[in-house]
Amino acid sequence: xxxxxxxxxxxxxxxxxxxxxxxxxxxxxxxxxxxxxxxxxxxxxxxxxxxxxxxxxxxxxxxxxxxxxxxxxxxxxxxxxxxxxxxxxxxxxxxxxxxxxxxxxxxxxxxxxxxxxxxxxxxxxxxxxxxxxxxxxxxxxxxxxxxxxxxxxxxxxxxxxxxxxxxxxxxxxxxxxxxxxxxxxxxxxxxxxxxxxxxxxxxxxxxxxxxxxxxxxxxxxxxxxxxxxxxxxxxxxxxxxxxxxxxxxxxxxxxxxxxxxxxxxxxxxxxxxxxxxxxxxxxxxxxxxxxxxxxxxxxxxxxxxxxxxxxxxxxxxxxxxxxxxxxxxxxxxxxxxx
Amino acid sequence: xxxxxxxxxxxxxxxxxxxxxxxxxxxxxxxxxxxxxxxxxxxxxxxxxxxxxxxxxxxxxxxxxxxxxxxxxxxxxxxxxxxxxxxxxxxxxxxxxxxxxxxxxxxxxxxxxxxxxxxxxxxxxxxxxxxxxxxxxxxxxxxxxxxxxxxxxxxxxxxxxxxxxxxxxxxxxxxxxxxxxxxxxxxxxxxxxxxxxxxxxxxxxxxxxxxxxxxxxxxxxxxxxxxxxxxxxxxxxxxxxxxxxxxxxxxxxxxxxxxxxxxxxxxxxxxxxxxxxxxxxxxxxxxxxxxxxxxxxxxxxxxxxxxxxxxxxxxxxxxxxxxxxxxxxxxxxxxxxx
Lengths: 338, 338
What we know:
Two copies of one chain form a homodimer.
Chain A: E1 3-9, E2 22-28, E3 36-45, H1 50-53, E4 71-81, E5 91-97, E6 101-105, E7 110-111, H2 128-141, E8 148-151, H3 159-168, E9 172-177, H4 180-189, E10 194-197, H5 204-211, E11 216-221, H6 226-231, E12 235-243, E13 257-259, H7 262-268, E14 271-274, H8 284-297, E15 304-308, H9 313-322, E16 328-332
Parallel strand pairs in A: 8-9, 8-11, 9-10, 11-12, 12-14, 15-16
Antiparallel strand pairs in A: 1-2, 3-4, 3-6, 3-16, 4-5, 5-7
Helix pairs in contact in A: 2-3, 2-8
């Protein structure tokens, strides 16, 4: 019988995840049941929110069980189909597994059209991160022309799209990122008005002051921690804060502490709102359509950091916490034309 | 020439204010100018937000200058009038001074009708705290029938009105307060479903769990600090947090720290909003009209803690930080019928 490989959760991390938390297991290749298709994974996504699923605690996403394969968004090719919706050779995407071959119900899958661009974008700018950025910007952060918008993790899969959407709305956009290469990409290619390399800045507060002389009207937070602490005192009256991610805190072993932030909200009457893309499921297609137009017109640019090889998927995931990726971090699992 | 007394800011407090920060000064009684009236103060308000004005830092209210009389809401009687709007014997209220006699422009004053109830209520349930509670509840916190609403400083001037308004909207209401007498008032007279005496509770988190078995849909925060820390993890999906005051933190000399709170907002998509009553200036009358109706119908009850004597105004103010007041803290400066 044919075999395949999958990554299972070997143990729950304490603090920063390590390779010991992941186990590469060879299993029988699944047989597709009624209305199922067999998928060969071409690209697998790794995303910061997965850190939460390694924990043994209820949150917005259910925790993974130790000894089970982990879940991920995947783009793959249909090898066999028991569904009238798909045939062999089709490209599909869905919330599936860290696995090289997957049997999935046809109802869980969306078609990916390779004529519309690289199929891996279904994991990034034309996938969950793009949709997060789209609704997070247009529905929660709501930048107006002339507003100063600060985006943390601005060179990431979500932040890079948020910043470009904010520019399209006429705002002044400042990003934070962790390398000179990222800062250059933001300011020279994506049109950000300024960017702060937080790893090279002794004085984050000063850097925010300098790049945001009129204060901050919108803060789109992917990071939390010290960057957020530096932005907070510069919030303007009626500022909006969209809380999308807190990756700086995901590996903390204690309840993280920091400056108390609520008093500033009285002074500014700022509104702080958490954001979860799954709430926008009914409007997913609307976002994808707009994002596709922006990508085709060149108004939104994107990058991918492609980690080669399924065996390196944990490295790709761990790399997110080191900020190694410019743009969307994806794992290339196999070639299309095998 | 007749004299009068006023309280001046003698020095800026470091940490908890003390009597040394206040100086009682005898000055010439002012003469009302054109369109001004001379007011004899009957009641003076002391409010937690005044702590911010003792600081040398810009915030939503301008800092007081050392050596100047401090400002306060006042209810008084007109002694002399150079305005066609008021005549001697009228009762008025306005944002005036910590002073026994005040010359004020008629345009700064509102009339107080003594037939509508005790004139001191113009400083409490029918004044700034009442209006804060009204718009904070109806416009920001927005409780729905069946919601669990937690109000901190629930026996205070604002919190007691918030809780009763939330009950009127059909919510289940839990208050926090600092004495058994307050807890009894909340649960036995104001109709709160439960109340937590935070000073007698070793386990605030457990107390919130116990009194809010279905989590917290609305948190109206007057206090900040550990009480807020205990409520936060119990916020439900789509919860609303109205940040009205942070009295637990006003006397801190360092930037106060505490558990980081933003990640919880992603999990819950909760909305946190600061609230300042001055934003509702155009709708002040609307709130007062509704509050008057509720007070007259008995749907809203109130209490005042009256500190006798102008010389005791600093004590009344300092008492706010000890939680000595049930309901609105006011200073009785003089009798009506002098």
